[in-house]
Amino acid sequence: MQVILLERIARLGQIGDEVAVKDGFARNYLLPTGRALRANAANRTRFEAERAQIEARNAERKSAASEIAERLNGKTIVVVRSAGETGQLYGSVSTRDIADILTGEGFDVSRNQVDLKNPIKAIGLHEIEIVLHPEVETKITLNVARSSDEAERQAAGEDLSSAEAIYGVDEDAQLQTYDPEAEEFFEEGASGPEKADDEEAEEQA
């Protein structure tokens, strides 16, 4: 389908460009969200008549997005979630979760503006890209931890993605089989196995 872009679209073109896109992409995204018009004679005339207004609205949206980006750039958001000893979350952190957190902190960000390839499923520091406008992007850091204390430790550079890092437990050692016969549980002054054998040998001599 041929469409006329009403805003810059990455890898497609700028405002006013006429481009060919897949029908599904046009019908499900570009046309219903007001990012493009079908390329026909009537819409070409309409676009040229409204071009100045369209470009002015885009400039306003870009300016507003730039202000938010400036406030967000480099910001760290702490997210507390339940997770296992190895750092795997009991669930995940999604684009909706991130957008809700940012909105709760006073930033006008929708889930569609959070560029997250896959949900976050482990604790740690995660760099997230926020696309506030086709021409305005910024990055934040998501500090996902089991508690505020762990978040502070992670921010200081600690890796808390294993039981050893969190509790000082050597996971490999924990997997070794415990052999009770290898331990000596003797009261003070009692003879150990080797001493008993030596005494028996002396009596026989």
TrEMBL record:
Residues 13-40 form the Ribosomal protein L9 domain. It comes from the Bacteria. Residues 196-205 have a biased composition (Acidic residues). Residues 148-205 are annotated as: Disordered. The keyword Coiled coil applies. GO terms for biological process: translation. The keyword DNA damage does not apply. One of its GO terms (molecular function) is structural constituent of ribosome. Keywords: Coiled coil, Ribonucleoprotein, Ribosomal protein, RNA-binding, rRNA-binding. PROSITE patterns: RIBOSOMAL_L9 (PS00651). One of its GO terms (cellular component) is ribosome. InterPro entries: Ribosomal_bL9 (IPR000244), Ribosomal_bL9/RNase_H1_N (IPR009027), Ribosomal_bL9_bac/chp (IPR020594), Ribosomal_bL9_C (IPR020069), Ribosomal_bL9_C_sf (IPR036791), Ribosomal_bL9_N (IPR020070), Ribosomal_bL9_N_sf (IPR036935). SUPFAM superfamilies: L9 N-domain-like (SSF55658), Ribosomal protein L9 C-domain (SSF55653). Pfam families: Ribosomal_L9_C (PF03948), Ribosomal_L9_N (PF01281). Residues 42-69 form a coiled coil. Gene3D superfamilies: Ribosomal protein L9, C-terminal domain, Ribosomal protein L9, N-terminal domain. Belongs to the bacterial ribosomal protein bL9 family. Binds to the 23S rRNA. PANTHER family: 50S RIBOSOMAL PROTEIN L9. This is Large ribosomal subunit protein bL9. The gene is rplI.
